[in-house]
Each structure stands twice: as structure tokens, then as C-alpha cells.
Amino acid sequence: MQTQRFIMLSVLLLGALPGYIIASPAHTEMGTYKRVMIMERGTERPFYFKETDEYNESAAPHALQRKRFNLYSAQMLEAKRGLLIRFKKSAKVDIGAFEANYGLKLREKLKSGYYIFDNLSAYSDVELIHTIMKNERKNISTVKPNWPKQNQPR
Amino acid sequence: MIHYRFILLLFTLLLLQGCGGGGGGGGDTATTSTQQGTIHFLTPASVTVNENTVFVITLRTDSQTATTFQIVSGTDQQFFNVDSTTGKLSFLQAPDFETPGDSNGDNTYEVTLEATNANGVSAQQTLSVTVRNIDDTPPVFRTLSNISITENRVVVTTVQTEDESSVTYTLAGDDAGALTIDQKSGKLKFKTAPNFESAVDTNRDNVYQITITASDTEGNQADMDMNITVTDIDESAANDTDDDYIPDNIELLIGSDLNDPDMDGNGVEDGLDTAGSHGDTFFDKLWHIRSLGTATNRSGVETIVGNDLDVLPLMHQYLGYNKGENIIVQVVDNGIDSDHEDLEENMDLTRSYNGLQIGDPIGRDSHGTMVTGIIAAQAFNGKGVRGVAPFAKIAGSNWLRQSGQSIAELEKVWLTGEGANEIAVSNNSWGIYFDTDTDYENIMAQGAATLRGGKGRLYVFAAGNDRDINGDANLQYSLSNRYAIAVAALKHDNTHAEYSTPGSNLLVSAYSGNYYDDSPTIGTTTIMGNSNHVGTVQTQTTWSEDTQENYTFVMNGTSAAAPMVSASIALVLEACPALTWRDVRYLIAKHAKQVDTANPTWHQNAAGLWHSTDYGFGLINPKGMIEECTAGYTLLSAEVNTAVSKDFNLLIPDDNTPYAFDLNVTDQMTIEWVEVTIDNDNRNASDYRITLSSAQGTQTTLIKEGSQSPSWWMDGGFRFGSAAFIGEESIGTWHVTLTDRIGNNTGTLKRIAIKIYGHR
């Protein structure tokens, strides 16, 4: 199944992302979880996905539920909500070319250094992240989905 | 198929042709019957119309030929006109219900009408037209159009009108942008309290000119021009002349006597009173502010005298009022009931955010409202509770709401939003068990460098409630950086709450209580009408006297402790506004009170400061901080940092043996913060206990074994933070020790890096 997906994505990418090919499946099966690697300040970090979110009773009565870490529904593997990217200070990236290469559209540049891109490509956010991590490692310190965080009241 | 359709169409046309011919010759039976015999009105015999309208009804008959209409009789026929062709019946003049013109004055007009068709056949019908009374009077204002209030107050008045139906209100006029009015209640408020010395009305004369429009359900409207004059008060008088725990300038603000410490003569100083128009009804229940050794919630467990924040002595002078330039504390949460009776005077809606939009940080969850009350429920207003900084202003944000939590929104709230520079403290009573997000510290770094005129905003966080599942505040990048002030939670007996998450990165503690069934918890505001003042011990969530159910005694969690620290910092910054974010952290560490001294996690560092992974440096002590910062305190010199790292390729055996690794720091500085990054590929890195010993021999535990973190969480490098070494000297050999204390998995140590921040 993963092989089929790889071939399909590769073929599609040849048309949509000139010069870039997804080299391997974007996620890893880990028992009941799926794991996707993102990059956070130069370090690869896992993003976890599960069919249903996992909650535990909280010790604090007013916080009815708590999450242990950012855990997303497996449906989010297909999401196209956009990316959060931070380029290295040394990188000289042509944003226009970057947008064109990956099917992205710059929505906003934050004062804290992040670029928020809309994902206009044919691929999911995690697929794009996978490809960008492979191709742009020298230019990028952070690339991850621009998805809502999952903090909870304490 | 087409062939059959053609035949059917032809047959139908022939039939129609036959019918038409019959009509022309007068052969249609039904039509003939009407034309020759009768004509009937199809309109009802009685109709009801609203007063003040002319049109009554359009008459109809069953005639299929042209029909003419006329008025033929009726006791009130003189009031009507009928269009002979269209049958449109109207009053000659719109009737007025209050002055009926009909013959018997009952507002029912009688008229008889006649219809005649083309063949001369006619019929008559008597019609009763009843005129209905409607509200045709615009609302009448019962509120004065010229109002005078003292500066620094938010609530202007509640606009009142008289009308037969419900009324809604809107604002217009030159200065409408500075105010807001509740559409239904008519409560008129400034979005932020006006400052006489820096008026924001159009012509800067401190007279705010607005037009209030009142509209009733019938569409009647009335306008009233209102002038709101803001008057000056003396804000400089920060002494407490009558020693009643209300500074003179606040006495002037609230209209109390600054020379009479007990205005109502009940034997209680005005600032401690729970009765009267200036008392805070449940002040005696707020043991975190003043512990009286009494039961304060349904647990029945008494608090301990002396176990409180010791802020009462400060309230002679510091309440967040800051001579009218109120200290602003931001509450980032899931929403605030900003109309709460005990909060509304302190809300700053010009710096508050509803999502990405300036405005009311709405939210129907009580958490944010509870947090806000702990910080700045207003004092001396005859209502409810009191915040630790009860005249600080609140800039709210509902970023934590379920549909929120985008990084773009957080940057606006924490850094770039409206009036961000003046927000001194951000309170963040939220988090997640494990995160490696660096977004938070990237934004906070900017806020620390640029906001508050470059002195930096303070970012205060709840450390977490995850002790029961071996949580550690160091598992959260949002807390393991030098900008975050991570706050642990204390019970009333000065031991940590059962849930309070430990960590070497904890800076300080404050009160929260444990659970409301077993010991005192925190009294605060909740969404108006949302608590329960009756019932059994299992259901009651507020005091029996709180009949309006606007307050609660159930607040706990590190969420309750964090706002006490935020408010304490507000008091300190009122006393010492020149302090930078680093000075505040340093003073917190230096003056926090050691509690639970028997706890084995306390370590005294070489600077003489005690630090604990359960308590940070102990209970926040704003009084001690203010005593130092107002007595010739010298600001810390510029921040410097140094880094050292060492690469390894070493399997850490699974044998419960400590393996120590040395790193030599050659750069000398006085330490403010230490970060240690460890790269290890153990699938279950939670097997490790990791300790750090400083060059001067102080030891802290960076993480204990057994946390419930994701697999390979240390692979690639995981950063820990520690506050334990504040004040120590950096130079010398540091030791990092890893002990694999849980079986089954091993890992290879690849790299250790230490980064030290401080000053010279």
C-alpha cells in the first residue's frame, strides 16, 4: 500500500513540483500510531497521529481532560492547512521560487521569523513537509504544519 | 414515441378549441350562473388593522367580469374611501387608537360596501374594521444627558428608557469609539478607563460626546445626545493617611474618606471590610491574600494563619493602580466574562482580543474568568472577591479556545497586538504534558527584548498538573526556556499540591490548594450565575451567601497559582517600573520563601539560594522583592551567554549505574539560566534519570525516570532548562549524569551541550 502510494505521489509530483520527488512515504506506521517527522530548530521531531485522540482524566478538577502531547487525528495526514517555516539566517531563499517549487503561497511573515504558507499543492501538508525536509535542509531550521496547537487549561 | 406525442397534442388542441367556442357563445354554465344570478364578496366580514395606517383591505368577489365597488352605508362610512375599480378600501385619514373616530368610540368602524359586475348584478357586505393599538411612541430616555464621572472608571451608567416594548441601544457620535453599550441592558462603559491627563475624546477636552439611539421592537427610535465629562482626581497621593489598607488616591477614586479608617464604624478597617458599599463580600475567604485560620470552602478544613502571599502590607500603597497608569496584565485563556460585576471595571477592551480581532475576549468556559479574578477582581466595590492586584487592568485573549491556538494569533496576543508595549505581564494558565515547540520562546524572546519600552514583558505559566503520571515541567519547551516563569502549586499547608508538576526549570510557587473536597482551594470570580450556592457538599461550588452565583471557591491547579505570580509581579512593577524581565526573575528567585523544608529536593546553591524541583525557589514574595527594588537596587548588567558541548558515541548500559560526563566551562559569568541539550537514541529515553552538577557543586535533577513521553524523545537532542543555579559562578567543570533506571531499552549517548545565560 505504501509502495503504491509512493509511486502515485512520485508520478504526480513530477507534474506539480518541478524538480522534486517525494522519495519515501511521508509517515511511519508505529502500531496504533502513525508518525511523521517534522523539523524544529534544526532537529527532527515526531508528530503523532491516531484514529482517535487520546485523553486522560486530569488531576485538576477544572481541567476535565488532558493531552500528553500533540496528537492529531489520522485524518490530518491528508490535511492541507498550510505550513509554518523558519528559514536559517544564513539562507538566501527566493520566496517566489520556493512557492512555485512546492505549490505554496505565502500568507504572512511573522515578526518572530516564521513564514506561514498556504498549501495550494496537490499534496498534503505532511507530504510537503517530508519533501521540503529532504530538499531544503540547508536552508530551513523549522518546517511543520501550521495547525492549531492543543494546549489545555491547567 | 414522438408519433404518439403528436397525436396526443393534436387531440388536446381540438378539445381546447371546442371549449373556447362555447364561451364566446354564452354556453358556459358556471359563468352564466354568476353573471345572471348572484355575485358574492370573498372578503371577510371583519378585519383588524394597525392604527396609524390608511390601507384596510382590497375587496374581492367571485365575479369573473369587471366589478365596480362603492360605499353605500354604515355608521362610520364617512371615514372610508374605496377605489371603485381596484376595490382598495382605505381610511381617509389614518386612525389613531387613542382618539377613536367611530360612532361609538370602540375603535371598530362599520361600513357597508357594494360590488356590481359587468352585467349589473350586485351584492352588499357590511365590514367591521377594528383598529388595533400599537406602540407608536418612541422610547423616552430616563437617563440624564450630562453625566460626570471621575477618571479611571470604566462604567458610566446604565441607560434607561420607558417604552411599551423592549428596547435596544446603539452608539454614535464623535466619541462613540471610546465607549461600548450593551444592546439589551443599556450598560454604558468605556472600553478602557479614561485618563484625565491624556484624554482621548475628539477635541481632548475630557467631554465625550455621543449619541445614544434607543429602538423599540415596533421600530420607533429616539436619540439622545450625551456628554460624559471625565473629572480629574489626585492620583499622586499614594499614601494611606488613615492606615485602612486603601491608599489615598484610591479613596478618592471610590469616593471614600481618606481620613476615616472605619467609615461605617463596624470596627473593621475599610480596606479589610466585607460589608457595605466598599467591602469585598468574600474577602475573608481569600486565604491566599490573608489567611485567617478559618474554613473557606466546603471541605471545612481551616487555613493556617501566616500561610498566605503576605501582600496585605503592600495594599497600603500597591494595588496595581499605579497612580492611574494601571499596570496591565494579560490573561491568555479560553475567554473571560468581561461583563462580570467584579471584573468589568478592570477590563481593558482596547487591548483585548477575540481571536484576531480587538474586542471582548468572549468565552463561556469559566477557567479564564477564574484566572482573571485571582489577578484583578476589583477591591472596595461592595462586591464578591478581590484580586491580588485589584486595580491592575486586564487585557484578555481567548487564544486557548477550541478553535484557536494558531501561532499567528499568539504572536499578535503576546507581541504585536494593540497596545502591546504597555502590557507588563502575560498570564498563561495552560500547557501540554510534552512539547518541543520552539515557537513560544521565539515570540517571547521578541517580547522580552522589545516590549515595555525594551524592559521586556514577563511571561508567566502554570507548570502543569501531571505529577500523577510522572510529568515534568522540563518536558515542555514552552517552559524550559529562560523567558517562561514556570509556577508550581502549593496547598494551604505550604506543601506542594498533589498534582503540581515538578521540574528543575520551576522558578517559583504560589497557592492553589489541593482539591475542594479535601482542603482550602481558591475563591475567585466565575461566569456570572454559573456556580451553585445551594445543595450538598457534593454539589455546592460557591458560598451560601453568594446567592447570585457569580463566584466560586473551587479554583485550583497550577492555573490558580500562576495568576498569583502574575499579579505579584504587577505589584512589584508598580513599585519598581524600571526592572527588566531579567531583574524580575532574579528578584523572584532571591526573595521567594522556602517552604516544606523537609522536602528532599531542596538544594542550596553556591549563591545561597535554595531551589527545589518541587517548588522552584519557593513561595513568591512580592513584599521582599519590593523592599529590595525600592532600596537602591542596581539593575543587572547586559545578558551574556556561553556554550560548551561534547560529542560521544557511548552506549549507556541498562544497569542502573550513574554515568557522569564532564564539560568544562571557561567563561566566567553570574548565572541566570542554564540549558542542557542531550542527544541519545534510546527508544524509551524516559528510562533515564539525568542530573546536572554545576561548577560550584550544586546539583539538580533535570528529569526523573518514568515520564510518559513519546518514543525516541531525546533522539536528535532534547533541551532541558534549569533555574537552580541563579547567582552562581559559571566557570569550572560541570557534570551531567545519566542513569538508566528502567530495563529493556538502551541508548547511545551522542552529544551533551550546555548553554549558560547570565551577566558579568
Reconstruct the topology from this structure.
The complex is a heterodimer of chains A (154) and B (760).
Chain A: H1 2-16, E1 27-30, E2 33-40, E3 43-50, E4 56-57, E5 65-66, E6 71-73, E7 83-87, H2 95-102, E8 104-109, E9 115-119, H3 125-135, E10 140-145, E11 152-153
Parallel strand pairs in A: 3-6
Antiparallel strand pairs in A: 1-2, 2-3, 4-5, 7-9, 7-10, 8-9
Chain B: H1 2-24, H2 29-36, E1 46-50, E2 55-58, E3 67-73, E4 80-82, E5 88-91, E6 108-117, E7 122-132, E8 140-141, E9 146-150, E10 155-158, E11 161-162, E12 167-172, E13 179-181, E14 187-190, E15 207-216, E16 221-231, H3 248-254, E17 328-332, E18 353-354, E19 357-358, H4 367-376, E20 393-397, H5 407-416, E21 423-428, E22 430-431, H6 439-450, E23 458-462, E24 484-490, E25 506-511, E26 522-525, E27 551-555, H7 558-575, H8 581-591, E28 603-604, E29 610-611, H9 622-629, E30 639-652, E31 659-665, E32 670-680, E33 688-693, E34 699-703, E35 718-722, E36 732-740, E37 747-759
Parallel strand pairs in B: 1-7, 9-16, 17-20, 17-21, 21-23, 23-24, 24-25
Antiparallel strand pairs in B: 2-5, 3-6, 4-5, 6-7, 8-11, 10-14, 12-15, 13-14, 15-16, 18-19, 26-27, 28-29, 30-37, 31-36, 32-35, 32-37, 33-34, 33-36
Helix pairs in contact in B: 4-7, 5-6, 7-9, 8-9
What this model shows, in words?
- The complex is a heterodimer of chains A (154) and B (760).
- Chain A is of the alpha+beta class and 154 residues long.
- Chain A is 22% helix and 33% strand.
- Chain A has three helices and eleven strands.
- Chain A has helices at residues 2-16, 95-102, 125-135; strands spanning 27-30, 33-40, 43-50, 56-57, 65-66, 71-73, 83-87, 104-109, 115-119, 140-145, 152-153.
- In chain A, the strands form three sheets. Chain A has a four-stranded mixed β-sheet, covered by helices on one side. In chain A, strands 8-9-7-10 form a four-stranded antiparallel β-sheet, with helices on one face. Chain A has a two-stranded antiparallel sheet with strand order 4-5.
- The model of chain A is unreliable at 1-16 and 54-64 (pLDDT under 50).
- Chain B has 760 residues and is of the alpha+beta class.
- Chain B has four domains: 35-132, Cadherins (Immunoglobulin-like), CATH 2.60.40; 140-231, Cadherins (Immunoglobulin-like), CATH 2.60.40.60; 307-629, Rossmann fold, CATH 3.40.50.200; 639-759, Jelly Rolls (Sandwich), CATH 2.60.120.260.
- Helix content of chain B is 14%, strand content 28%.
- Classes of the chains: A alpha+beta (154), B alpha+beta (760).
- At the A-B interface, strand 3 and strand 11 of A face helix 4, helix 5, strand 22, helix 6 and helix 7 of B.
- Strand 11 (152-153) of chain A pairs antiparallel with strand 22 (430-431) of chain B.
